[in-house]
Design a protein that fits this description.
- The strands form six sheets. The chain has a seven-stranded parallel beta sheet, sandwiched between helices. Strands 1-2-5-8 form a four-stranded antiparallel beta sheet, with no helix packed on it.
- The longest helix has 20 residues, at 316-335.
- Helix 1 crosses helix 4 (231-246) and helix 2 (171-185) packs across helix 10.
- The protein has three domains: 5-83, Archaeosine Trna-guanine Transglycosylase, Chain: A, domain 4 (Roll); 125-250, Ribose 5-phosphate Isomerase B, Chain: A (3-Layer(aba) Sandwich); 257-483.
- It is 30% helix and 20% strand.
- The chain is α/β, with parallel strands linked by helices.
């Protein structure tokens, strides 16, 4: 029997429409018959009781806001009826919780690439990375030429990563650009990298070379276009050298503990926190239990649910770092004169999300129930295995790039609306609803909507997703890769000269 509505938590006083419900229709929740007073779109909430003005709306077992006015049982609960409870900066107290993952430990492996420095990649690609946006045209030209010349044989891809930055930036913006580009150059999914500079940019190639620290000089080459005669011929000569090195690499068995997976969502809808995000959360727990690493980002989409993560911090130091992670991002909003809680987006609201608490409680479910073992600043690389929190905005391209830069070899991206984009690493698109999966099969790699449309148990979905990730780590291409999509986006916060 098709599930048409769902009360997520016993404490909830709203239910979620799984499919569209019609005015006059009767639903039965906890033995109570409720006549709907209006049409309820899929993903949206219906009042299970009469609400007085100011009364809390409970979903996922937590308040997601309060009633703006008196609301009758059976009414459609959307942004017109619900207002956020969030305001300003908050004081936080560390209340650690016990966490025990009852998941069998298995010695699993995947087929990856072991690099000279011990790092592990899941792709063996040739990357062309500019120090400054002025050379974007050249790097695209070089990537296309090498693809034509080699047909990409012996490597997984040949990719250029254009971006707009590297010059006329000041302060933290300049440093952030350097950090993200450094992380890209050193990423183990790249078997070889050509760094292309102009010569007069703020991000000086020689300074950036020093900023990289220790790197494999046989696999990372530099070209400064103002210093060579013919940048095309010089670039191709360097790329041929790099290509000859990269094609020697072979996949080998790698312990699952070496896998790092980014967790990201975009275009969330009312089903995100019911289907895809909890499935990803269970996946995260499974990977962490086997010694692997997951990276949760999108700080603004933690607001309203941050205490859940704080209480799962493994120690007081991590709690303090998480408080800084949250408050620093709130201060960023304040400094720029923006409302901290101006979220969700129009697409989110159309999909059934009404307040930031509603969105955040759904989004943070991607973290599962594991302890937080690391907290990372933007551009910082993962040092600790287990669940990590990463500072980055909610913007899909910027946040997914940040996950890749932090060391994720794969990004899991849940979506209720759909998007064709991809991060610099394989980006697995997970649909929250079966309608999207059916409509956009060229975008979607995994349909978590089967939880409610086909009554597939979440444990089964998580097992299937786990196997898909192992397959992707071992070489299976995701839909975005097959389409040739890849994107690099850098977080800009400050002044441009």
């Amino acid at each position: 029997m098709e599930t048409k509505y769902l009360k997520i938590n016993p404490a909830d006083n709203v239910a979620v429409a799984i499919s569209e419900l019609k005015s006059g229709e009767t639903i039965t929740v906890d033995g109570v018959s409720i006549v709907l007073k209006e049409d309820i779109p899929a993903g949206h909430k219906v009042a299970l009781k009469d609400f007085s003005e100011g009364e809390d709306i409970i979903k996922y077992g937590y308040p997601i806001g309060h009633a703006r006015m008196a609301v009758k049982q059976g009414s459609w609960m959307n942004e017109k009826q619900i207002q956020t409870n969030l305001a300003g900066l908050l004081e936080y107290t560390y209340n650690p919780v016990e966490v025990s993952l009852d998941i069998p430990k298995k010695d699993l492996t995947f087929k990856g690439y072991r690099r000279k420095n011990g790092e592990v990649g899941i792709r063996n690609e040739i990357w062309i990375i500019p120090t400054v946006g002025c050379v974007n045209g050249i790097i695209n030209q070089l990537a296309e030429a090498l693809r034509r010349e080699t047909n990409g044989e012996g490597v997984d891809a040949i990719m250029a990563f254009p971006h707009n930055y590297g010059c006329s930036q000041l302060g933290d913006d300049h440093e952030n650009t350097k950090k993200i580009l450094r992380d890209m150059v050193l990423h183990p999914n790249a078997g070889a990298v050509l760094v292309v500079g102009l010569g007069c940019e703020n991000n000086q190639p020689d300074v950036f070379r020093e900023f990289l620290g220790d790197y494999d000089q046989e696999r990372v080459k530099f070209m400064v276009t103002q210093k060579v005669g013919d940048e095309y011929e010089e670039g191709m000569e360097l790329l041929r050298e790099l290509y000859a090195k990269a094609i020697q690499d072979q996949r080998e068995d790698i312990p699952l503990s070496e896998l790092r997976v980014g967790l990201k969502c975009g275009g969330s809808d009312g089903l995100s926190g019911i289907t895809a995000n909890p499935t990803v959360g269970l996946f995260s727990d499974m990977l962490v239990s086997k010694g692997g690493t997951t990276i949760l980002t999108e700080v603004p989409e933690m607001f309203g649910a941050e205490t859940i993560l704080m209480d799962r911090c493994a120690n007081r130091e991590l709690f303090d770092k998480t408080v800084c992670l949250i408050n620093d991002f709130k201060e960023y909003f304040i400094k720029n004169g923006q409302e901290i809680y101006e979220n969700p987006s129009p697409g989110n609201k159309d999909g059934g999300i009404t307040t930031l608490e509603d969105k955040s409680l759904g989004c943070t479910q991607k973290s599962g129930s594991s302890l937080v073992k690391g907290v990372l600043a933007y551009g910082e690389r993962v040092q600790n295995k287990g669940l990590n929190l990463l500072s980055a905005p909610g913007n899909d391209l910027v946040a997914s790039t940040a996950c890749a830069a932090a060391g994720a070899q794969i990004v899991l991206f849940t979506t209720g609306r759909g998007t064709p984009f991809a991060s610099p690493v394989p980006t697995v698109k997970i649909a929250t609803n079966s309608r999207l999966a059916g409509k956009k099969g060229n975008w979607i790699d995994f349909n978590a909507g089967r939880l409610v449309t086909d009554d597939v148990p979440m444990e089964q979905l998580a097992d299937e997703l786990f196997q898909l990730v192992l397959d992707v780590a071992s070489g299976r291409r995701v839909k975005a890769e097959l389409a040739g999509f890849h994107d690099l986006a850098i977080f800009k916060q400050g002044v441009t000269l």
